[in-house]
Design brief:
By secondary structure, the protein is of the alpha/beta class. The chain has helices at residues 17-26, 49-58, 76-81, 97-106, 152-163, 183-189, 198-201, 206-222; strands at residues 4-7, 32-37, 63-68, 84-90, 110-115, 133-137, 171-175, 193-196. The structure holds D-xylitol-5-phosphate (DX5) and zinc ion (ZN).
Length: 223
């Protein structure tokens, strides 16, 4: 499949959020990646429902909501109502992951699971058929602008092998430290969705960076 690009709004200018949302609307990006942090599961707090609703009011592309919160079951319906198309929960934050995934699907959302850098993909072995998307964290969650962890390439390959014949439409998303320097290698390893925060928003021409991340597939096909 053609890969997807999901700029991470965490790196946007919150004082000019509408402008940055319209920039993404006008770009070749596929999704808005929305990082929700509770200060408990991760050592940082991002934003909550009022901001998400404000984003949803202007966004013309699906909202890919990444929940870095403990016990996410309490809020799934509210995230759906606030506009989430995809809801991704952390494996490490869910005691009853199977139940949580079914609840997300029952809301009509794509069900995602994120795993931290230290968590092996093998923990997903008994649930792989129930997942629409796996988000491999390529940094420790909590902050944008961190260095990409190279072991992620191995995890992409391990996950593709794990899912083969059991969930061939699984989307593998890579989150953290992604940019033009590693995007092609990640796609070659088997990634489907690239999240990019700082690589997009710290650039002088964010639309052009999004376009170059999106057009890498042409290089892949011609390789
Ligand atoms: C980290 C977040 C990421 C972050 C990515 O906890 O989940 O989505 O915003 O930012 P960059 O691309 O700057 O590493
Ligand atoms: Zn994220």
């Amino acid at each position: 499949m053609n890969h997807l690009i999901a700029p991470s709004v965490l790196a946007a200018d919150f004082a000019n959020l509408q402008k940055d949302i319209e920039m993404i609307n006008s770009s070749t990006a596929d999704w808005f990646h929305i990082d929700i942090m509770d200060g408990v599961f991760v050592p940082n707090i991002s934003f909550g429902f009022p901001v998400l609703q404000a984003i949803n009011k202007h966004a013309k592309k699906p909202l890919d909501v990444h929940l870095m919160i403990v016990d996410p079951d309490r809020y799934l319906e509210q995230f759906k109502d606030a506009g989430a198309a995809n809801i991704t929960v952390h494996y490490e934050a869910c005691t009853h992951l199977h139940r949580t995934l079914q609840a997300i699907k029952a809301l009509g959302c794509r069900a995602g699971v994120a795993i931290n850098p230290h968590t092996p993909v093998s923990v997903l072995s008994d649930i792989i058929e129930d997942v629409d998307l796996v988000c491999l964290m390529s940094v420790n969650p909590g902050f944008g602008g961190q260095k990409f962890i190279e072991n992620t390439y191995k995890k992409i390959k391990d996950l593709r092998i794990l899912a083969a014949g059991r969930n061939d439409s699984l989307l593998i998303e890579i989150d953290g430290g992604v940019g033009n320097n590693n995007a092609l290698a990640l796609l070659n390893a088997g990634a489907d969705v690239l999240v990019a925060g700082n690589a997009v928003f710290a650039a002088t021409d964010p639309v052009q960076v999004i376009s170059s991340l999106k057009n890498i597939s042409a290089e892949l096909q011609n390789a």
